[in-house]
Amino acid sequence: MKKIILIGNPNVGKSVVFARLTGVRVIASNYPGTTVEYRKGIMSVGEETYEVIDMPGTYSLEPTSKAEEVTCAFLDDVCCKEKDCFILNIIDATNLERNLHLTLDLIDKGYPVVVVLNMCDDIKHRGIDIDVPKLEELLGIPVISTCAVTGVGIKVLKERLFQGAPREPRQRTHEELWLAVGIIVSQVQHLTHRHHTLRELLEDISIRPFTGLLVGAGVIYAVFKSVRFIGESLIQYVFDPVFNNIYAPLLMKLSAILQPGTFGHHILIGELIDGKIDFKNSIGILTTAPYVEFDMVLPYIIAFYFVLGILEDVGYLPRFAILLDALMHRVGLHGFAIIPVLLGFGCNVPGIMATRVLESRRERFIASTLISIAVPCAALQAMIINLLGPWGFWPLAVVFAALFFAWVVIGFVLNKVMKGYSPELVLEIPHYRFPPLPIVFTKLWLRVKEFIIDALPFVILGVLVVNLLQYFRIFDAASAIFAPVTRTILGLPETAAFPLLIGFLRKDIAAGLLIPLSLDLKQTIIACVVLSMSFPCIATFIIFLKELGLKYLLAATGIMVAATLVIGGMLNLML
Amino acid sequence: MQKISLIQLKKGTKARIVELAGGKQVAHRLSMLGLRLGAHVVRLSTFALRGPVAVRVGHTTLALGHGMAEKVIVEIVSEPASKSSSAFV
Fold it and tell me: pLDDT per residue over A445-491, tens digit each?
């Protein structure tokens, strides 16, 4: 099958073009480095089908990060060997000069290239005018102007996809390439003076120290407020009514058929409390498991990813990275590492994947370890809010303060202990954009779907394990084994040991299983911190292994166990 | 003309890059982002505590870590103009 490979600088809209060509739904955002791994899709034009491959962005064919390596290695591997390989070089019309360097490099390598001049809607008001036919003539290959977000130009693009003929390979130095780029740009691009717009003013104040901090604090506050507001509204008006008014009566009928006290009833429904199903305390595969996942966690997942998606698409996150650069250097990272951390607050797995934008293995290890220890995912946070919410605001503050403390201390120590240095931030700040709603909602749908598919089996498994242990009356005996740790160091009842161990499968259901134990405030705080910090869930474990290898995983696990016991023990003594 | 590093450049000042210290790799990386010899930059802001420096090159806004900004050596072209429209090179 013919292959079409999408290549271009970071944040030029490759993923949006990919989605337009293939119809595959993908996650696209307004910051460099959204895509860290290539992905494939199928496009059909008339009778024929083609394989389209979306690549992580790269500034040049000499990689400077793991994500760029993916692209360069793939190009070398596939394109040099296969004949039916076409390159679609996507360039940002607002940034012609820099983007054309890669274009010329690709042409020089002898690949058949077609240029997509994207973001054409964005240049007029910046006072940029580009003579597309002239550019086409000078480059000697097709140039198609598009606006992938709205779909303008995609039809023409599909028609002209294969008109790029390869040229004789030639060797030019970077200086020679820049010279050639300069000559082309001077002939095709005309700039007119424009006064600063309101948007540019907003762009500027968010990267100045004082106003930037104000904006940053405002954004964080707004994020917390809106996530809680959206999440709580969804629970109150959608999920609670569905569970209480529709689902519960159905289950009561099932309960009557199964008869309380039987094995099947115990596994599926759990125990009836005062003759009724209590979703939080019954503990059955059909009661507590779906309730925790869909009524307690899912609403916050939807809220979190909706707000995150908007932040991503507006283009705010890289500005946040600048604000935190100085702090991040203290833990051996630079400001851009805050983006994987923020993604980790959704789910640790994409967070750890996103560390691929960082330059060195040392940085990736520090960032991944910090994410898996001190960054609770949205599902766990939802449960922490559920568990501690009744006590008001300050217990939540204690949990997050303890996690932040652990984050800073572990990062600081790792930075001191590990050989190497932390590279400097070099980051392109994207322009603000009004978030394109189809992209925001596609992204939300993809992330929520992923959450449900990943979570449900483990949640059911977790409930099943605890249920079986209880049914065969070995729960208490087995819990006793862990008593020294849970009771002596952490000050928790023995019965908390198993729910905490279930955290290895999934954190949210583990927190859900703590509810029936009716822990007091201090114990709940400690349990929440311990759940957040101790072993990451199995999915995080696997991705950590895949991305960094066994040696680093074992090191991170050791740090985790030690840190959990130290912080948990400290809280036990202090509170 | 006096040569200074990006760090010493005052806010709103336009300057021309005359040297990229710190070796070939650093120079290559910076040049791929538009920070090349001869390019004009305008400094937008600096953050305290060895924080990053934000500059504008052409239509791009870049943030450079403190250590990286030290390696970009420039010559002043013009002091802050009355209007910030000079940001467009």
Answer: 999 998 999 888 888 888 888 888 878 877 777 778 888 888 888 88
Q: Residue B61 sits in a domain of what CATH number?
A: 2.30.30.90
CA dihedral A547, A549, A551, A557 (to 10 degrees): 50
Measure in Å the smallest separation between the Cα of B3 and chain A Cα atoms: 22
Domain with CATH 3.40.50.300 in chain A: 3-191
Three-state DSSP state, A448: helix
Q: Which chain B positions have a beta carbon within 8 Å of A191's beta carbon?
A: 88
3-state secondary structure of A273: strand
Residue of B nearest to A204 (CA): B44
Residue of A nearest to B36 (CA): A178
DSSP A206: T
Partner-chain contact A425 B84, CB within 8 Å: no
Q: Residue A107: how many CB atoms within 10 A of its CB?
A: 23
Query: pTM of the entire structure?
Result: 0.88
Domain count, chain B: 1
- Taking only the tens place, the pLDDT of each residue in A508-535 is 889 998 988 889 999 999 999 999 998 7
CA distance to partner chain B, nearest, from residue A443 (Å):
26
Query: Does the CB of A191 have a partner CB in chain B at under 8 Å?
Result: yes
Sort A299 into a burial class: Cβ within 10 Å, 0-12 / 13-18 / 19+: buried
Strands A85-92 and A3-8: parallel
- CATH top class, domain A3-191: alpha beta
* ipTM value: 0.85
